[in-house]
UniProtKB/TrEMBL annotation:
An example Gene Ontology CC term for this record: cytosol
UniProt entry keywords in alphabetical sequence: Glycosidase, Hydrolase
Protein name, per record: Family 1 glycosylhydrolase
One Pfam family hit: Glyco_hydro_1
Molecular function GO terms recorded: beta-glucosidase activity
InterPro entries per the UniProt record, alphabetical: GH (IPR017853), GH_1_N_CS (IPR033132), Glyco_hydro_1 (IPR001360), Glyco_hydro_1_AS (IPR018120)
Similarity comment text for this entry: Belongs to the glycosyl hydrolase 1 family.
Catalytic-site annotation from UniProt: E371
A GO biological-process term: carbohydrate catabolic process
Domain of life: Bacteria
Length: 471
């Protein structure tokens, strides 16, 4: 079957502010949670101070995006570059920087896809409110969103509100949750999650009010879980793993209320967040225009009884962090039928076809993949080349999965793999590289920060030029 990508398909690539920009304290920018967390690891890996130094190389980098043939560039704004303390005065230097980037992208024929918030809450809001635990943070975010819509909405028409809220909420240091009390941590988590849902709804409504022709969406970390066996309990566990980690979030965004299974869980744990009566109308009125999803791998689960023995010898509710075990529901397992990358992510292009089909049938909204990629320890050869055939193979299989989903009748708007160039990985610094463009630095040595086209750059360039027909 021929690959029938629509002529309007947005072939793009992605990044995020704290991972690519650098210039962490330049141009009036304030410190963020992402900065704070990276500084704690700076003796082990690179931090956000320089990252890929897009802040100083933005024009050169956009020229490379043009050469690559990108139709779209998905990137995030730094809230703290625009409002350094999160809810105080607007920083004109931050507005000016993003205006330059957006104008030059458009000049080069590249559509800007803008994410408002990607893991980098202004740290001043942590000190003032404990971040998302306080309702005031949701209204600070609405104000920030309105500033962005007014400043950039005449040119930016595609927006994502929060990147991977459903994954971010699982990671304690991204949410500034530091208590050792398991119940208290989950109470805080539930309240923070709810306030982000409120912030999301407020931003969606503001976009539709302020941006003529604006389209806005969540950007979720997609989840596809297979049962470890065909035992009914394992099948149920796999369903619950998807529902608890992704679907509850999409249901909240599309229906404006928690689904019953999730409310049952919150009530059983006695961690139902505080809600105001006026929130019902806000959450129900916020209608998203499409779904942005990030896809890297699939998961596997078995049933985990509530009274199962924990290795530490005491009963807990959650185990590990991102792919957590949920006692009474599901245990994270390894899928023996899949190969994994050197960093442990199990590679499964079929899973992408599955989630695209599932989300489209369930929510009946257009879809765009805003992250998908392979992190590896790329090597620069003596002749200044990067031969990343493994990445080409990974991406080719996933692009084919998208073509298959389109053939299934799924409306897919575009594909923005992670990442446009090497950037700061949250846990592996510059040892783990994703980009089409190699950035010549290590965790400990900035070197010359030269930009070097990898073999995957030329492969993707051809894919875009032929609209996917060369696969």
């Amino acid at each position: 079957m021929m690959n029938q990508f629509p002529a309007s398909f947005l072939w793009g690539a992605s990044s995020s502010a704290f991972q690519i920009e650098g210039g962490w304290d330049e141009g009036g920018k304030g410190m963020t949670v992402a900065d704070f967390n990276s500084f704690k690891l700076s003796d082990k890996q690179a931090d956000t101070k320089v990252a890929s130094d897009f802040y100083h190389h933005w024009k050169e980098d956009i020229d490379l995006m043009k050469e690559l043939g990108l139709k779209a560039y998905r990137f995030s704004l730094s809230w703290a570059r625009i409002i350094p303390d999160g809810d105080g005065e607007v920083n004109p230097e931050g507005i000016a920087f993003y205006n330059k980037v957006i104008d030059y992208l458009i000049e080069q024929g590249i559509c800007p896809l803008v994410t408002l918030y990607h893991f980098d809450l202004p740290y001043a809001l942590v000190e003032k409110y404990n971040g998302w635990e306080c309702r005031d943070c949701a209204y600070a975010f609405e104000r920030y969103a309105r500033v962005c819509f007014r400043a950039f909405g005449d040119r930016v028409k595609y927006w994502q509100v929060i990147n991977e809220q459903n994954l971010m909420i699982r990671v304690n240091n991204r949410m500034n949750i530091y208590t050792n009390d398991e119940w208290e941590a989950d109470r805080m988590r539930a309240q923070m999650d709810y306030h982000m849902f409120l912030a999301h709804a407020l931003a969606v409504n503001a976009c539709h009010e302020l941006v003529e022709g604006g389209k806005i969406a969540p950007a979720v970390s997609s989840t596809c879980t297979y049962p470890l066996t065909n035992k009914p309990e394992d099948v149920w566990a796999a369903r619950m793993n998807d529902w608890f980690k992704t679907n509850y979030c999409l249901e909240m965004h599309t229906n404006g209320e928690y689904p019953g299974y999730y409310m049952r869980y919150l009530e059983e744990r006695n961690i139902v967040p505080k809600m105001e009566p006026c929130d019902v109308a806000i959450l129900k009125s916020a209608k998203i225009d499409y779904i942005a999803l990030n896809y890297y791998r699939t998961l596997c689960a078995s049933y985990l009884p509530a009274d199962a023995e924990h290795p530490a010898g005491s009963r807990v509710f959650r185990g590990n962090e991102v792919d957590f075990d949920q006692y009474g529901y599901c245990r994270d397992e390894r899928n023996q039928n899949l190969k994994a990358s050197e960093y442990g992510a199990q590679i499964d292009p079929m899973g992408l076809r599955i989630v695209l089909n599932e989300y489209y049938r369930r929510y009946h909204l257009p879809l765009i993949i805003t992250e998908n990629g392979l992190g590896m320890g790329d090597e620069l050869t003596a002749d200044g080349r990067v031969h990343d055939d493994y990445r080409i193979d990974y991406l080719r299989q996933h692009v084919q999965a998208i073509a298959d989903a389109i053939g299934d009748g799924v409306e897919v708007m575009g594909y923005c793999p992670w990442s446009v160039m090497d950037l700061l990985s949250s846990h592996q610094g510059f040892r783990k590289r994703y980009g089409f463009i190699y950035v010549n630095r290590t965790d400990s040595d900035l070197k010359d920060l030269a930009r070097i086209r990898k073999d995957s750059f030329y492969w993707y360039q051809k894919v875009i030029k032929t609209n996917g027909e060369c696969l």
